[in-house]
Specification:
The chain has about 70 residues and is mostly helical. The chain has 3 helices and 2 strands; from the N terminus they run H-H-H-E-E. The protein has helices at about 1-5, 10-20, 25-45, and strands spanning about 60, 65-70. The protein has a two-stranded antiparallel sheet. Helix 2 packs antiparallel against helix 3.
């Protein structure tokens, strides 16, 4: 579950660009693209979950942040 939540936020630059966009229609399109990436990751991800008892972790590194989930 932590992997799916992390992958859903893999493109934070779309939300950042939307926050700075003065045109309301472009802002709406950027937020729709951000939401669409979240839905596609959650819907199409059917991977075996990580087992933290075995020490399995998930790491996501983007230009803005680094996430390590166990």
């Amino acid at each position: 579950m932590t992997q799916k939540a992390a992958q859903a936020h893999e493109y934070p630059e779309l939300a950042d660009r939307a926050a700075r966009e003065p045109n309301q229609y472009k802002r709406m399109a950027l937020m729709a693209a951000f939401a669409g990436t979240r839905v596609s990751y959650i819907k199409n991800s059917s991977l075996k979950p990580f087992n933290s008892l075995l020490g399995e972790t998930y790491e996501l590194v983007t230009s803005k942040y680094r996430l390590l989930a166990e």
